[in-house]
Amino acid sequence: MENRLINKNRLDYIYTVNSNGVKKSIETWNLTIPLHDNDGNPFNQEIIDSILEEISLNYPGFTIVNNIGYWKNLGKKYLDNNLQLIIDTFPFSQ
Predict the structure, then answer these.
(1) Which of 61, 57, 49, 64 is nearest to 88 (CA)?
(2) Which domain holds residue 67?
(3) What CA–CA distance (Å, rounded) separates 16 from 51?
(4) Is residue 19 domain-resident?
(5) Minimal CB count within 10 Å: which of 4, 21, 48, 54?
(6) 8 Å CB contact between 59 and 14
């Protein structure tokens, strides 16, 4: 007999528990949101907030990590301040 944790909004399951163990039916996506453009000008916080709000309307939750991207081009070093979103979602195949 299987027990399912139901997401009532989608009627899909996240975990299935059976005699073999637990099956996780979820995908993890990573999304990077830059906090400034290529010239170093910061993006408007309202735009970033609206992106986060839109994502929250479509997914039950996500984790935000501040990170720094490091890269070189033509001998010049660049550091980019970013937000990394870690989003758990249902696979498209279900």
Answers:
(1) 61
(2) 27-89
(3) 32
(4) no
(5) 21
(6) no
CA-based torsion, 44, 47, 52, 53: positive or negative: positive
Residue 34 maps to a domain: yes
Contact 84, 67 (CB under 8 A): yes
Q: Let me know if residue 22 belongs to a domain.
A: no
Structure confidence at residue 13 as a pLDDT band (50, 70, 90)? low
Nearest-angstrom CA–CA distance, 1 and 50 = 43
d(Cα 8, Cα 80) in Å, to the nearest integer? Answer: 39
d(CA 84, CA 32): 4
pLDDT tens for 26-54 read 788 999 999 999 888 999 999 999 999 99
- Say how many domains are in the chain: 1
Whole-model pTM: value is 0.67
pLDDT tens per residue, range 53-82: 999 998 878 999 999 999 899 999 989 999
